[in-house]
Every structure is written in C-alpha cells, then in structure tokens.
Design goal:
By secondary structure, this protein is of the alpha+beta class. The chain folds into three domains: 3-57, Structural Genomics Hypothetical 15.5 Kd Protein In mrcA-pckA Intergenic Region, Chain A, CATH 3.10.290; 63-133 and 220-242, Alpha-Beta Plaits, CATH 3.30.70.580; 136-214, 2-Layer Sandwich (Alpha-Beta Plaits), CATH 3.30.70. The protein is 21% helix and 28% strand. The chain is built from six helices and 17 strands. Strands 7, 8, 9, 10, 13, 14, 15, 16 and 17 form a nine-stranded mixed sheet that branches. It has a four-stranded antiparallel sheet with strand order 3-2-5-6, with no helix packed on it. It is elongated and about 70 Å long.
C-alpha cells in the first residue's frame, strides 16, 4: 500500500497551496470513499481509496523528472517563492519547467554564489542532502587573511560550534586566484551558514563564497546567472551516487 496523508495527496495532485487545501478539508470539500474527511492527516492510498475534491475525482499529476543546474548569483534566494518580492531561483528557471513542482537541493545563503541543483525528484534530493549519505560539497572561499597552519588543522579535525561538532573538512589553498587568501573547503554537512560559521569561529571574515561542486555535479564554466539541464550522463551519475 502506497499511503500518504490526505493533504500531501491533494498537494501532489496540484490542487493548490497547503493553506488553501487545509482550509478546503476543514470546510468539508473533500471526500474519501464517499465520506467527508476533515482531518488533513487522514491516511489515503490512491490505489485503493476514492478521493474527491468538490465532487471531482482526485488524481496525482504526472510530472516528468527535471534536473537543472543554476549558477546562483549573489542576492538571490535559494527558494521557490518569497512573500517580500525578492529574487529567487525560480526567476532563472525556463517557463516550460515552472509547473513541474521544482525545489532546490542544497541551499545557499543569499549572498553566496555557485551551484544549486533544482529538481522535482524527492528521493534524489533526500539522498543528496541528508547528512547520513555524506555527499561532498566543495566551496571556493576568500577570507580576510591567510589561514594559519594551526587553523587549517583545526578545520580538518572539526570544530565545536554552538550547535555541535563539525565534521572534518578538506582544506587547500587555491593557487592562481586573484586573492592570496583563497581556499577550497570541502565538507559533507549542510547546516545553515556552516562554512561561514566555521571560519568566523577561527576569527576570519568570509568576503566571497562560491559552491563549485555538489556530489559529482560540478559548476564548471557555467556563467553566473545561467541555468541548464543536466546531461544524461550527469543524471545517471547522480542517481547512482545518491
């Protein structure tokens, strides 16, 4: 049995926002097997249960999987909407994919740049973002001073922050960059502002942060503000690694 909560089923069918549908359920507009259901957590199995909304049968929307990579610019939110009207990643998504239930994988803070995977594949998103899978994320970071050997070692061993111990990071200088204080930092955890907080803990200020790799997916030469579909090879590799 493939069972989900009633509200989740209604949302998956593309019938409206969570708030709208929760209100519709409470108002008695939804039936399951001919009976009114006012609990939006009521378990539903669409293979066996008959669900109607305003007396019309509810069917799950069939949406093909979409995999996009965006080079997020600074000032853009890694979310699909913003009630304050600020720019989001959806501003860069081609029109033909905007009704494909997309969401970002591995968010970046507003002022950071770099790779954001945008997809509607929930299973892949979970495997790429959950800490237990230890998927690597590589950042190119510029700070306001040279990292001492002691501080590099501390990053490599893990730091005790206010929300717990960080996992060991891989750190190496970036040669040939404009700034002499540029480093590659690779981690496999996704706590909020984790790279900035790790460096701030050691007394450094991040002046630039760009994510260049998420698992096997690399930013490459994709220009800032540009977006593209993943190749079949990239998708197969991600699905295998995820």
């Amino acid at each position: 049995m493939d069972e989900s909560g009633l509200l989740k089923v209604l949302r998956a069918a593309g019938l409206g926002s969570r708030r709208f549908l929760a209100g519709a359920v409470r108002d008695g507009r939804v039936k399951v097997n001919g009976g009114f259901i006012t609990d939006y957590n009521h378990p539903v199995d669409l293979k066996n249960d008959h669900v109607t909304f305003d007396n019309q049968p509810v069917k799950l929307a069939t949406v093909s999987p979409v995999y996009l990579i965006l080079h997020k610019p600074a000032g853009v939110l890694s979310t699909t909407s913003d009630d304050r009207g600020r720019s989001t990643i959806m501003d860069f998504v081609p029109f033909e994919y905007r009704k494909s239930n997309l969401f970002p994988v591995g968010r970046l803070d507003r002022e950071s740049t770099g790779i954001v995977l945008i997809t509607n594949d929930g299973d892949l998103a979970y495997r790429l973002s959950h800490p237990s899978f230890e998927q690597p994320k590589e950042y190119h970071v510029v700070v306001d001073g040279r990292l001492s050997g002691c501080d590099i070692k501390r990053l490599q061993q893990g730091l005790l922050l206010e929300d717990g111990q960080t996992c060991p990071a891989r750190v190496k200088p970036l040669l040939g960059e404009k700034s002499q204080f540029a480093y590659s930092i690779t981690i496999h955890e996704g706590r909020k502002h984790i790279v900035r907080r790790m460096l701030a803990h050691l007394g450094y200020r991040v002046t630039s942060l760009k994510r260049v790799r998420l698992s096997s997916l690399c930013l490459g030469n994709l220009d800032c503000g540009h977006i593209r579909l993943l190749t079949d090879v990239e998708v197969k590799r991600l699905l295998k690694e995820g």
